[in-house]
Design brief:
Number of helices: 15
CATH class of the largest domain: Alpha Beta
Bound molecules: magnesium ion
Radius of gyration: 22 Å
Number of domains: 3
Shape: globular
Number of strands: 20
Distance between the termini: 27 Å
Structural class: alpha/beta
Strand order of the largest sheet: 1-5-4-2-3-6
Strand content: 15-25%
Length: 452
């Protein structure tokens, strides 16, 4: 039995790997495992969204669940509303930041967090064994709609920030909604907070005519130009389902995800004595420095936002974050939330009266080096044992691959989830040292391949 779920739900190319048949069977399995109560559903702007959403609804109804359709919304918007509606879970039709030809399904538990691997396995078992609950003919329920979800979600975010301070700062913000559901929330939210908002790529269009939906520097040149051309104070860009936010400063410089994460972490963690920050082993020294400075402790996890969310909830920790700019703020909800992140960064600028570039300049600078090492498929799993033996006694974290920690940097060696290779990341204050560390990691992986 193969895995259906990847790091964040089920993904595939529309009408290729991901067909109506797959989505229907998957939804029958989801209803079987999460039901038989009510399930809330939503979708992003992707092509085939209505087709898949209707398959989701049919599958859920066939198992005796009732369905609440909240309309198109960001994934964190659905996640926020699920526990407030008191439903048993949620299903989101989205492929997040993947290219336009992809769609997918994210499954959300009654607590609003994407379900754990254990629950995913239950759904996979029902799917592959075709063990579905089939409702009696007179037990099939109906679909209702909930039109106020985005209103509730926006109000909740506003309640987490100082609206007066933001309004007085009179900031001009360009919001790049990636032609998807972030456009339904962030322009409205920031306008109501008193910002002067200009929207970019705001029409919902599954062809993503504005840009690729992944908010990484190479896709944000349009936003960068718009910020400079309009003398805006900053730019905010979302991914396809708006659980992430990326930022552009007033000079048009695109921030790396770990920089916005560090800016938020610095403020949130220093407000609490002995706060806990939850972050995957892929996060770097910048966030370690910030945590140390704030007197917070770091709880490392395996890579994956669902793992971070569940750990945050279990520990009652103050903040979570990922180096890709995903930020989890539990007083709002313990999941990545792009609109919440945008409001937090703007609140920090307003409170401190600093530009985004000034906030970035206050951060320590690190350099990184990334290398891929091809590994024969049959050795992809076994070399971990060799690497653990070879690095025994060194300062290391072994939650997910091997992360070696040195006084002046670190090396992370991890297998790729999808390809026959291992990835080696290294970071240090100088580029030369980062490259030296990276070369050392590559050497370790090559030796492990020979020895295994
Ligand atoms: Mg996403």
């Amino acid at each position: 039995m193969s895995d259906l779920f990847g790091t964040n739900g089920v993904r595939g190319r529309i009408n290729q790997e991901l067909t109506v048949d797959v989505v229907l069977r998957l939804s029958r399995a989801i209803g079987t495992v999460l039901g038989p109560g009510a399930i809330a559903v939503s979708r992003d702007s992707r092509e085939g969204g209505e087709m898949f959403l209707n398959a989701v609804i049919s599958g859920l109804l066939s198992t005796g669940c009732s369905v609440v359709d909240i309309g198109p919304a960001p994934t964190p918007g659905l996640q926020f509303i699920v526990p407030r509606l008191g439903v048993d879970g949620g299903v989101m039709v989205t492929a997040s930041h993947n290219p336009p030809e992809f769609s997918g399904i994210k499954v959300i538990g009654a607590d609003g967090i994407e379900i754990s691997r254990v629950k995913e396995e239950e759904i996979e078992a029902a799917y592959f064994n075709e063990e579905f609950t089939v409702a009696e003919w007179n037990q099939i329920k109906s679909v209702s709609t909930e039109d106020d979800s985005i209103r509730h979600y926006v109000d909740a975010i506003k309640s987490q920030v100082n609206a007066d301070v933001i309004e007085k700062a009179n900031l001009k913000v360009i919001v790049d909604g990636a032609n998807s559901v972030g456009s339904l929330v962030t322009p409205l939210l920031l306008r109501e907070l008193g910002c002067h908002v200009v929207s970019l790529n705001a029409q919902l269009d599954g062809n993503f005519p504005g840009r690729d939906p992944e908010p990484i520097p190479k896709n944000l040149s349009g936003l960068s130009h718009a910020v400079k051309a309009t003398n805006a104070d900053l730019g905010v860009a979302h991914d396809g389902d708006a659980d992430r936010a990326a930022f552009v400063d007033e000079n048009g410089t695109i921030l790396w995800g770990d920089q916005s994460f560090a800016i938020v972490a610095n403020r949130v963690l220093s407000k609490h004595d002995g706060a806990t920050l939850v972050t995957p082993v892929s996060s770097g020294r910048l966030i370690e420095d910030i945590a140390k400075e704030a007197g917070a402790q770091i709880e490392w996890t395996r890579v994956g936002s669902i793992i971070v969310s569940h750990r945050l909830k279990d520990l009652g920790a103050e903040l979570g974050g990922e180096e890709n700019g995903g930020i989890f703020y539990p007083p709002h909800q313990p999941v990545r939330d792009g609109a919440m992140t945008a409001a937090q960064v703007i609140e920090i600028m307003a409170t401190e009266g600093k530009s985004l570039s000034q906030l970035v300049d206050e951060l320590p600078t690190y350099h990184s080096s990334k290398t891929k090492v091809p590994v024969p498929e049959e050795k992809k799993d076994s070399i971990l044992g060799e690497l653990l033996e070879m690095t025994e006694g060194m300062s290391r974290i072994t939650l997910d691959g091997v992360k070696l920690q040195f006084e002046d940097g670190w090396i992370l060696m991890r297998p790729s989830g999808t390809e026959p290779l291992w990835r080696c990341f290294a970071e240090s204050k100088s580029l030369a040292r980062a490259e030296e560390l990276s070369a050392r990691g590559v050497e370790l992986i090559r030796t492990a391949i020979e020895q295994s």
